[in-house]
C-alpha cells in the first residue's frame, strides 16, 4: 500500500509542531526540509518529537563532506534522508557508508534525480541534452548502483522507473494534488489515487494539507483514499 508523508514546510517551529501533532495520526512519516532545518537546526528537529522523520536536506557536495553531513544527522534518527544523484556515485557510496554506521537504525537514502522544477529547456541550459526522462533514468541507475535505497521522483516518472528498475527501489513522490486543490508552483501534478496506481511507495503532500482549514481532516481524507 502507498503511504502518506506530510511536508511540514515552515521556518516556524511552533507551527511545524502544531502540524505534526495534527498530522502524525494520519501519516507514515513527517517531512522536514531545508526551510525548517536551516531556521531551526538539530534542536528544531528534536522539538518535533514524532518519529519517523524524513529529513529532506538534498545533500550535494564532495563525498567526504556529504559523508560528514550524514554522520552529523544520524543522532536525529531520520528514517529517510535525501541527496542529489548528480553528486555522483562516489558521493552516494560515501553517504551510504556513513549511514551504515548506524546499523539497523540507518536512514534510507533517497536520491533526487532531476528536480521537478527543471524542464527540458532548463536542463539543456545546464549542459544536458536528451530530455529529462533519459537523465532521470541515467541518474536513477547510478544512484541505486552506488547504494541509494530509492528515489524521489515525479508522479509522471513512477511507471517508467518501476518498469525499468523493478519493485525494489523505494519511490517517494511529491507533486501530489487531491482533486480540486490548487497546483501552486508544482507544474505536473497527479492525484493520490493516480500516483498510487502508478507504483509509488510514498506520497509527499505539503500545501494541500497544511493550508487546509482542517489539516488533520485533509490528511485523513488522503490516507483514506490510499487505504481504499
Ligand atoms: O506543498 P507541496 O505539496 O507542493 O510540497 C511538496 C514537498 O515536496 C515540498 O516539501 C517540496 O520541497 C518537496 N519536493 C518537491 N519536488 C521535488 C522534491 C521535493 O516538491 N522534486
Beta-strand proportion: 15-25%
Structural class: alpha/beta
Within CATH, the superfamily carries the name Aldolase class I
Query: At CATH's second level, what is the architecture?
Result: Alpha-Beta Barrel
Low-confidence stretches: none
| Largest pleated sheet | 8 strands, parallel, barrel
Radius of gyration: 17 Å
Number of helices: 10
- How many β-strand stretches? 8
What ligand molecules are bound, each kind once? cytidine-5'-monophosphate
Helical content (DSSP H or I, runs of 4+)? 40-55%
Number of separate domains: 1
3D structure, described in words:
The protein is of the alpha/beta class and 228 residues long. The protein has a single domain (3-227), classed as Alpha-Beta Barrel (TIM Barrel), CATH 3.20.20.70. It is 45% helix and 17% strand. It is built from ten helices and eight strands. The protein has an eight-stranded parallel barrel with strand order 1-2-3-4-5-6-7-8, surrounded by six helices. α3 (63-73) runs parallel beside α4. It is globular. 41% of the residues are buried. Cytidine-5'-monophosphate binds next to β8 and α9. The site of cytidine-5'-monophosphate (C5P) has 15 residues, from β8 and α9.
